[in-house]
């Protein structure tokens, strides 16, 4: 667990691990995996709320559970910045992690691949590979998206690339 | 443009007629317009399709220098290239250049896959032009490639192969045989993976393992100074999931690599070199000349080219890979018999004809027998110098332990969904 901050580490250890190695093309085994995903997400969300550290909403956007959509937010200088969040479960899941996208930030930062996919740290993929198939969506959010927001949102706000929605509204009114 | 020029010419001509004696300047104008019209016409004209590849050395023959390979005895039958179908996944810095090379070589059919559009940020690489910004990469590629060589059948697939839907279209398009007769089990002879990320490579690996499709992998490192190509024959060689992916160590200490504010760098040179190595290997494989490399790395900082070979891992986590491995083992007796016949035929031919000393040139940077790892899952210590694993292997963990963790469990998917929805609504 080299390269991770203390909060990420302690959150990670509390998210339930998954056990079914199944992807979206695996029929009944995928349904089993989905149940495990939900259990982990429920536990992680409850934990965040209890710790007053609620920072995302996510739900399956199709009955098969292969597409997920929601929002995530980050508080910087006492103001909350919120972004739409989406990803598909890849056919090779869980061998490969979902590629998390923040479409509103596409083209606004170099720490992003085409299509608004966030650029993960060098530590993410090795840890995911080591723990396959025990890590799921909740782990990807905790290890991938949370550190990305913490690192990039302050830079995006301070450089003016991202404006708070209140400021945007007033500037369009005037 | 042609329309506008025509009307301009008409204007000039009516001006000419309206004057009893037209001034020289108007005559000059008329000639200028006619010249521009001719220029525009030749610019827009494409060469017509060629029915047969000719070896005739004339300026108008686009294939004369390629057919010369056959005359020189490098390739036995170059014309066969027109029978081959190649799929290229990822039309970026490597894939687009590979596509252009195969197009200029006169490949029969190219299937192009990418989900992205051309951006100005791509202009440090080869192939795409600024006027193509905003087009899908596959459509822009078809536009340029069909101009270069109208003989090539081009298919454009703008989709993301990692999604369930995209994967379905991807595998169906690879399977589609069309009307042409061939000895292939799929509709293509070779798949070239030119994608820029691990996730997409794993998807190409999945498709090719399921279809038993031979493919070649290519990659350029995120620091843009090294790359590699790899041949993957399902069941016969290691698949992409048999062992953690390899990278050519650039020699730059990872800890000194500054990653703040950037995801990845790219150089047209490294990408061009890797595209060249990839297509060269593809041509050797398709046209059966030279030695096809199982793995070739490129470290541009040291100009070092490590090679190696990897056997499949019987414990591979990819089920289709294990199935192909079993099939390969079952067909071993037949393969051995065929190989024996071939060796005997060659031996008898050798006693008759003169020896080709050139065949003894077996230059390799590293000794293949040393490099060959008996099992891809073996420790990374067995890797040749300059190669490392990009990712660790998955930890082994006792299954029972995990099962034991889940104690009072809700086992209904809809119940679980409702629980999460309720939490989300708070
Ligand atoms: Zn394998």
UniProtKB/TrEMBL annotation, chain A:
Keywords: Ubl conjugation pathway. One of its GO terms (cellular component) is cytoplasm. CDD domains: UBCc_UFC1. It comes from Cocos nucifera (Coconut palm). One of its GO terms (molecular function) is UFM1 conjugating enzyme activity. One of its GO terms (biological process) is protein K69-linked ufmylation. Belongs to the ubiquitin-conjugating enzyme family. UFC1 subfamily. E2-like enzyme which forms an intermediate with UFM1 via a thioester linkage. It comes from the Eukaryota. The keyword 4Fe-4S does not apply. The active site is at 119 (glycyl thioester intermediate). This is Ubiquitin-fold modifier-conjugating enzyme 1. Gene3D superfamilies: Ubiquitin Conjugating Enzyme.
Automatic annotation (TrEMBL), chain B:
InterPro entries: D-isomer_DH_CS1, ThiF/MoeB/HesA, ThiF_NAD_FAD-bd, Ubiquitin-activating_enz. GO terms for biological process: protein ufmylation. Residues 13-23 have a biased composition (Polar residues). GO terms for molecular function: ATP binding; metal ion binding; UFM1 activating enzyme activity. Keywords: ATP-binding, Metal-binding, Nucleotide-binding, Ubl conjugation pathway, Zinc. Belongs to the ubiquitin-activating E1 family. UBA5 subfamily. This is Ubiquitin-like modifier-activating enzyme 5. The lineage of its organism: Eukaryota, Viridiplantae, Streptophyta, Embryophyta, Tracheophyta. The gene is LOC103718330.
């Amino acid at each position: 667990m080299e390269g991770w901050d203390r909060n990420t580490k302690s959150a990670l250890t509390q998210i339930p691990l998954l056990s079914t190695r199944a992807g979206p093309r695996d029929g009944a085994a995928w349904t089993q995996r989905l149940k495990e995903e939900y259990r982990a997400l429920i536990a992680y969300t409850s934990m965040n709320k209890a710790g007053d550290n609620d920072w995302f909403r996510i739900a399956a956007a199709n009955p098969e559970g292969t597409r997920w959509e929601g929002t995530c937010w980050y508080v910087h200088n006492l103001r909350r910045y919120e972004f739409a969040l989406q990803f598909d479960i890849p056919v090779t899941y869980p061998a490969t992690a979902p590629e998390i996208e923040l479409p509103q930030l596409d083209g606004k930062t170099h720490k992003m691949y085409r299509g608004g996919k966030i650029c993960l740290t060098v530590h993410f993929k090795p840890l995911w590979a080591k723990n396959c198939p025990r890590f799921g969506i909740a782990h990807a959010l905790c290890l991938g998206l949370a550190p990305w927001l913490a690192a990039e949102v302050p830079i995006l706000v301070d450089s003016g690339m991202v404006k708070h929605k209140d400021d945007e509204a007033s500037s369009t009114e005037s | 443009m042609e329309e506008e020029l025509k009307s301009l010419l008409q204007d000039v001509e009516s001006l000419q007629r309206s004057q009893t004696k037209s001034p020289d300047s108007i005559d000059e104008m008329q000639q200028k317009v006619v010249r521009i019209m001719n220029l525009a016409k030749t610019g827009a004209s494409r060469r017509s399709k060629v029915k047969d590849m000719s070896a005739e050395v004339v300026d108008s023959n686009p294939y004369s220098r390629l057919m010369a390979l056959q005359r020189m005895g490098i390739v036995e039958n170059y014309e066969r290239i027109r029978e081959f179908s190649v799929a290229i996944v990822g039309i970026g810095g490597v894939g687009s250049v590979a596509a252009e090379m195969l197009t200029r070589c006169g490949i029969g059919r190219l299937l192009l896959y990418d989900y992205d559009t051309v951006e100005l940020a791509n202009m440090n690489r080869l192939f795409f032009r600024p006027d193509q910004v905003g087009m899908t990469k596959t459509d822009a590629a078809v536009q340029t490639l069909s101009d270069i060589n109208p003989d090539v059948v081009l298919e454009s697939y703008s989709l993301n192969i990692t999604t369930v839907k995209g994967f379905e279209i991807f595998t169906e398009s690879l399977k589609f045989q069309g009307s042409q007769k061939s000895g292939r089990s799929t509709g293509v002879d070779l798949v070239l993976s030119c994608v820029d990320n691990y996730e997409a490579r794993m998807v190409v690996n999945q498709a090719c393992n399921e279809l038993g499709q031979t493919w070649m992998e290519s990659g350029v490192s995120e620091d843009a100074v090294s790359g590699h190509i790899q041949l993957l024959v399902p069941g016969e060689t290691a698949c992409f999931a048999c062992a953690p992916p390899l990278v050519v160590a650039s020699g730059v200490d990872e800890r000194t690599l500054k990653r703040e504010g950037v995801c990845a760098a790219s150089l047209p040179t490294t990408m061009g070199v890797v595209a060249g190595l990839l297509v060269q290997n593809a041509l050797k494989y398709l046209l059966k000349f030279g030695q096809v490399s199982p793995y070739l790395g490129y470290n541009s900082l040291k100009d070092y080219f490590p090679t190696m070979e990897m056997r499949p891992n019987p414990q591979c986590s990819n089920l289709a890979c294990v199935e192909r491995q079993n099939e390969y083992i079952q067909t071993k007796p037949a393969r051995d018999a065929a190989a024996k016949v071939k060796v005997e035929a060659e031996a008898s031919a050798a006693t008759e004809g003169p020896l080709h000393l050139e065949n003894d040139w077996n230059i390799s940077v590293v000794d293949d027998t040393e490099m060959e790892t008996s099992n891809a899952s073996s420790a990374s210590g067995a890797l040749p110098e300059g190669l490392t694993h990009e990712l660790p292997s998955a930890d082994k963990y006792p299954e029972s332990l995990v099962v034991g963790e889940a104690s009072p469990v809700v086992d209904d998917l809809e119940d679980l969904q409702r629980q999460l929805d309720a939490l989300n609504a708070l």
